[in-house]
Each structure stands twice: as structure tokens, then as C-alpha cells.
Fold:
Amino acid sequence: MNASRLSRRFPLLLTVALLVPCPAIPQTHKPILHGRHWIVITGKPLAATAGARMFERGGNAIDAACAMLAATCTMFDDLSWGGETQALVHHPETGKVTGINACGVAPTGATADFFKRQGFQYPPGEGPLAAITPGTPGGLMTLLAEFGTLSLREVLEPAMQMAEGYPAEARFVRKVENGRNLLRHWPYSRQLFLSHDGRGGAPVTGQVFRQPDLLETLRKLVEAETRALESGMDRKAAILAAQDRFYQGDIAAEFVRGSREQGGLHTLEDLAAWRVKLEDPVQTTYKGIEVYKLTTWTQGPVLLQMLNLLEPLDLQAMGYNSARYIHTLYQVMNLAFADRDFYYGDPSFPPDEPIRGLLSRDYADQRRGQIDRERNDRRVKPGDPYPFQDSTNPHLELLEQWGRDRRGNRAEGARGAEARARADAAFLAGTTSIQAADAEGWAVSITPSGGWLPVCIAGRTGIGMSQRMQSFVLDERENPFNVVAPGKRPRVTLTPTLALKEGRPFLCFSVQGGDAQDQNLLQFFLNMVEFGMTVQEASEAANITNHQMYSSFGDHESEPGLLTLTDEVPSWVRRELERMGYRLEFKPRNSGPITAIYFDQEHGTLQGGVSNDGEDHGIAW
Structure:
């Protein structure tokens, strides 16, 4: 029946139908990933495919995550095998969330006095002296041994195929070209990255990039596993035998030789003594949702502190990304990150971090009362959480000096826009994120990093060395918990996240972006919980970036009041923020790039979200 005949027979019905709007369809750049059985998401499409292949072999989410980690490490521009890995795992049978601490440590000789004698104000950000011990190989093998089901051979197969040769991507090629001046100074890096045309040329897009030394290293790991199985060891013991070969055998020996040849400090004892740690995470509850983070060797607890500060406030009444909402987030970030900058460090070393006080609700109430609701407070300092854990702060003198005596003054606004853009690009490119979940209830969130381009290759291992030493400080006045020392882990920005609701997985999410990581994760979480966005809408939504905290990289500078917004923020919001004392800069997109899995508890299905700000990619089934 056509519209004309329908209107004659049912005039009122047609009129009503035309006046009632259809339900709104969310407009996102990418669709929600829907899966019933599993979802994998990571920073590279090829790596996501590696994860999907593990499910085809009958593996679980941990197997898939390990395959993705191996593949991304082999692609170099996001991270390398010599970097560091941080993870949170939900075990469906026990309901427990476990933290994986696979961050390397400062090697022998890496003391504050050593770097000061070399003329450094902070440990360097590139080259052999920037490298902590490799953490990612041990993190991958421990994850697989403890929680996976497949063999190391199966999980490493995609990465080994890629090491044998994969088509170079445009972003990888561009980074090699941009890092040429550094790469040519390191002999093994020069041979790997700048010898593709006989005249010191970088690979070209689409050319097959081959890594024979790395392939041989991965073969040695699989060989160690195979021999262990043949000797009668079980699956777990065989994987750990491969881990021993990496840290105590011929791979370790060549890594150390290659490092020391180029001026590094690593010793065989440094690698042999290092261990992956299985840890209990820290946790808070926001409106009935349990949020889990790794503890103070990462910046993860800042998210929990910010949620404690925000929970009593009526954020919905402020309005999403209104001037009042943005100002509130910025001030809460200032408080939590000031605490990070002074109190966070490796809990395995004295002094003990006051984490119980930092996460106290009463402490959050006190700090919230310090917020200026009308203007940005450029001079926010760390608080004193010790009374909230029934103890006395042993660092009151340092706390009083903090900020004022740092190199004589607070380092404000030292970076220009061009330098900041270079720094932002470097750190966005130097980390990736990995999310995996399956119908059995396994969930894992990983934020690996380190060994990004331009990278120094350690001898004939094919392994790129970490650049994480730069996250230490040399002066206890800046942070008495994070002064470099041999065997100590730097306080990293890397920060995976798991959230449970009613004891079951609710969200699994992480992001690239250095000091901005927990800023973006906070906004993503609030987008879903407070403003009702879908996981994809929340992943793409316009965020803000606060630059007031001290950077964890380079010269560790601070730019109080600097606020990055997206271009879409309206003029009246911009004017109000400027009146409040903010200095504004703008980007087309500023959402992460976030990767996330939402567990639809009502229907028993999985939903994946992938930001439109990067190359992150997901596959679901």
C-alpha cells in the first residue's frame, strides 16, 4: 500500500507516525564490537589478528593477550621486547583480580651520584643508559604459564612469522626516518633499520621488514620449552624454563654484552636476579563499581584517588564538558597528581608509600575541601595522607620545600607548543594497550611499553632496549620514593584497569599517552557511568588534558593552567575557562587512544570500544 492510499484510510495513524521521531542511532566513527564468545583489542591490526588466532586454537583470553603482546613487540614502533609490561587479570573461577608486575629495574651502577657525575639532571631518555632490565619477556611467559592454556610455541608463532618478515607500515617507516640521527650511532640499530638499500636507507612502506636476530632469540625460547617438555616437565614448568634461558642463559649473556659494548650498565646478575611479581592490586568503589589498579610503582592509584574525590559531587548536574565540569576535573587531577609526584615509587624499597592514607575517603574529603571553585590553583601541593593511616609523615620538611626548591624554581611553561607536540607524539607512539576477554569470564588489561623508536638494539638479540630510566628522579626533594637505585623499579605512567560490578567483570580498559593515561581513563569511565554513553561513544568522546603535573619524562617539566581541549568545545565554554585562569590549546581529537571491553551482564555478551584517535583495532566473535 502506497503512502497516498495509506493516508486516505488511516490519516490519524500516519500523522502520528510522522511526528514521532525514530530512536536516535549513536553516531560514532567506529561501530561497537559485539561478541558472544571473545573480544581482542590492541594497538595494531596485525597484532589483533594474532590474538584472534589463539581463540581459533582453543585458547583463552590470556593466550590471546600474550600473542598480541608478542606481535606488538615485534613491530617496534609502539614497543619492543626489551620494554616493560603491566597487567591486571580477572580469574573467573576464583573471582580474584591479580596484578602482574613485569617492570624492569635499574641495573648495577645506576645511582643518583652516577648520573649526576655524568652531568644529567635526570636519567637520560634514550640509549643504553636509559634502559632498565627487560621486563616484557618475563611478563609474557609468566602470564602464559600462570593463566593461559596454550604452549609458548603456539603463542609465539605469529610473532615469529612477523620476525621472519612482515610488510613495513607507513607509521613505522616515518619513525625510522625521524630517528635516523640517533639510530645511526648504535651499530646494531643501524644494521637493522638503516641498511635496506645498501646506502643507509630505511625500509619503505610495504617492503618486507626482516629481523633475523630477533627470530633466532624467539626460536631459542621455543627450543628451551621443547627440551623441557621432552625431559618430562609439565606445560607451566616448560614455559618457565624458556624464561630462565632468557634471563640466565645465552640470551641474557648476549643482551648484557651488547648493552655494555654500547655504554650500558647491565650485568648478568641484574638479569638473573630479576623476577616478575604477582601482586594484589589496590581498589576503590565508585557508585557500586569496584575499580582495580596496580599500586604505586605505577601511576594507577591516581585514578582511584580522583574517583574518591569526585563521587560525592553531582557531575551530571554540571553537564558533560561544561566549563564547571572541566574545571572540576582539572582541579581533582591537580590534587591526585601532586600526590603522585611526591609519594609514588617502588614499594619494594624504603620508605613505605602511604597508600592506605592516599586512598582513604577521609583524606579525599579533606583534599576536596581545598578546591577553589572559581579559579585554577596553580600552586597545588601534595597533601599529607599519613594522619589518615594513623602515622606521622617523615617527609614534612621535604613536603614544605616541594615545588619551591625544585631546581631553584618550579619549571613552568618551559616547553613551547612545537616541543610539546613532539613529546606528545613520542609518548603516544611508545606505548600500546591490550584488552582481551572471553565467555568463560577471563579478562585481562595490559599496558606494555618501552623500546620504542628510535631504539638501541642490544647486540645480536634483536631486542630493543627500554627507555624507562628517565622516569626516576635524582633528588629526593622531588620525590623521596622514586630516587634511582640499582634493583629498583621506576614509577611508570603505565596503567591497566579492571572494574567489577556485583563481583563480575564490568569494564576492562587502558590507553596510551604517558601522564595523560589516567586522565583519559577517568573521563572514559565517567562517560559511561555518569553520562550513559556506550563503550564506543565513551572511547571516542572529547576529553581534556591537564599539563599541570610534573612530566614523567625528559626534563620533568610542569605547565600550570595549560589545558588541551578538542576543537569542538564551544566559544562560551572557552571564554569561561580563560576567565578561570586557564591557558587553552586545541586538538582535533583528544580521546586517548582508549581501548575497552564492556561486559553486558544483562545479556551475557561482550562489547568492545576502540578510540578513533590512533591505529588501535579489535576483533570479536
